[in-house]
UniProtKB/TrEMBL annotation:
UniProt source species: Noviherbaspirillum aridicola
Pfam families: TatD_DNase (PF01026)
Keywords, comma-separated and alphabetical: Hydrolase
Family in the record: Belongs to the metallo-dependent hydrolases superfamily. TatD-type hydrolase family.
The protein's name in its UniProt record: Deoxyribonuclease
């Protein structure tokens, strides 16, 4: 069985089809789909989807892309939402949080500082409640790691990882898993494919980031969690393993980092 550790099932691209998409993923063997929130406005929607579909769970957080629109009290709202979600067996992590230094509008000195403040405060929420984090690390690995050394949440996943081998080793040393998805299906994605094929096996988890990052066989179409088994086959080829071995390995790793999945 497979676990999709990162899927935005509540995205508008799935409007009216959430149930069909979740059921199709289950039919293809995807036992769990982790749905991270991105802002205060969708805390309720990810919670509701997880309640409605047996193979879905959720995380709560404020995505760096939504930091410019976030209100000052959103961090307080998040802390209380996390506190209230601890009794919900479908709640598994704080996320999606992190830093994005790729989009120009997010790279001004003022916006970088605001991103870093929201990121660090959300790490503190995860630390205070003993929860893992789902990290957005686009062109920001070193600064992400700087705050992890300072604040030290329980553990987490570096989503859509595309850093260096040295950065990968630093995440792994801190107990983090690395999320790999459709990007590694492209033959020209040499760095991601090398990483996926060579990092420690205990660091590997799979994700789709659906509806984004579609794999090569549906690019540029809409991605979905049902594509995860085929994405897993790509990882199996890169590692010289069978798909069944990869399914077992990555599911075991997902449970190790997202300990509430067992509930």
């Amino acid at each position: 069985m497979w676990i999709d550790t990162h899927c935005h099932l509540d995205a508008s691209e799935f409007a009216g089809e959430h149930g069909d998409v979740a059921r199709e993923a289950a039919r293809r063997g995807v036992r769990k789909v982790v749905i991270p929130a991105v802002a205060r406005f969708n805390f309720d929607s990810v919670r509701r989807l997880a309640a409605e579909h047996d193979n879905c769970v959720y995380a709560l957080g404020i995505h760096p892309i939504f930091v410019p629109q976030a209100a000052e009290d959103d961090l307080d709202v998040l802390r209380e939402a996390v506190r209230g979600a601890l009794s919900d067996p479908n709640f598994v992590a704080v996320g999606e949080i992190g830093l994005d230094f790729f989009i120009p509008a997010l790279c001004t000195p003022e916006m970088r500082a605001r991103q870093e403040r929201f990121y660090s405060e959300q790490l503190k929420i995860a630390r205070d409640f003993g929860l893992p984090v789902l990290l957005h690390v686009r062109r920001s690995q070193d600064i992400i790691l700087k705050y992890l050394r300072r604040i030290e949440p329980a553990t987490g996943i570096a989503h859509a990882f595309n850093g260096s081998f040295q950065q990968a080793e630093e995440f792994i040393r801190r107990g983090f898993k690395l999320g790999f998805g459709g990007a590694m299906s492209f033959p020209r994605a040499l760095q991601i494919r090398r990483l996926a094929g060579s990092v420690s096996e205990e660091a590997l988890v799979l994700e789709t980031d659906a509806p984004d990052i579609p794999p090569a066989w549906i690019h540029p179409g809409r991605n979905s969690p049902g594509e995860l088994p085929r994405i897993g086959e790509v990882l199996a080829q890169l590692r010289g393993m069978s798909p069944g071995e990869i399914a077992e390995l990555t599911s075991r790793n997902a449970h190790a980092v997202l300990t509430r999945l067992a509930g």
